[in-house]
């Protein structure tokens, strides 16, 4: 998950009731903050229509969405493809966006399920299948998706921002990593890897499960046009590592094999998976470091611990993950 926002936005009940009155969702029963929200404030909403209780998620947009104008059409595309994604509800005027206290809002149904913190092999396989289905569903769809911003230039700029605020060993690790990743991204064979719409933030706190399987994927605010392999790398770094931050071979292979059965990876994608895992880890380490530096002077800002990804970067640097493609068949 990404790194920052101000403290959760607060409002009074009458203001919320005014917003909900513009939707056909019934009478407000209660509302409460949703956990894990970082860049935007999210609230669970419970309403009553006749004798039926329903729950929704109200998102107060405090940070601009990287997916820009593609955000709502992207969720509509996922819904139409039968993916477990909450579509944006339209208000009575037919608009996907509304407002609360002058802030832009979105309202979606609340998906069933819960987050998992020690994923099983079967859950990792379910995630791999979802990522493949998502990439296939958005293939060829005309979406005004922006290019994924964390490219070689972004990595280089962020490395300069944190320099001087961290230890010498970390500075050296970042410099070496950025040079290695930038060199990879500038290769012509890497530039020709399959691209398309990526989620960009497939962490455990953005996926829901129940006893039967995967029930929902959340937070498409970082969706962008990027390398499809990057989504697998982000997911592997969060779902497939052990307590020391090293990729577990069984879960990592299970993730990639489940994806590969639906959308076969090219030989070049298999070759570059290890360096893409380093790329994704470096991007999130630098993002969290940048936020942590800003948060030092703003106690109300929420952010994720950057040390988690420092360890993952160090492990990828010391031990490149060997992907045996024979295990994917």
- Strand fraction equals 15-25%
Average pLDDT for all residues? 91
> Biggest β-sheet: count, sense, barrel?
5 strands, antiparallel
Number of helices: 10
Task: Name the CATH superfamily assignment of the largest domain.
Answer: Aminoglycoside phosphotransferase (APH), C-terminal lobe
How many individual β-strands?
Answer: 9
Q: Which structural class is indicated by helix and strand composition? A: alpha+beta
Order of helices and strands: HEEEHEEHHHHEEEEHHHH
| Poorly predicted sequence stretches spanning 5 or more consecutive residues | 1-6
Strand order of the largest sheet: 1-2-3-5-4
The first-level CATH class name of the largest domain:
Alpha Beta
Oligomer: single chain
Overall number of structural domains = 2
- Net shape: globular
Rg calculated over all Cα atoms: 20 Å
At the third CATH level, what is the topology name of the largest domain?
Aminoglycoside 3'-phosphotransferase, Chain: A, domain 2
Distance between the termini: 31 Å
Give the % helix.
40-55%
Please give the CATH architecture of the largest domain. Answer: Alpha-Beta Complex
Give short descriptive properties of this protein:
329 residues, alpha+beta, Phosphorylase Kinase, domain 1, Aminoglycoside 3'-phosphotransferase, Chain: A, domain 2, 2 domains, five-stranded antiparallel sheet, two-stranded antiparallel sheet, 9 strands, 41% helix, globular, disordered N terminus
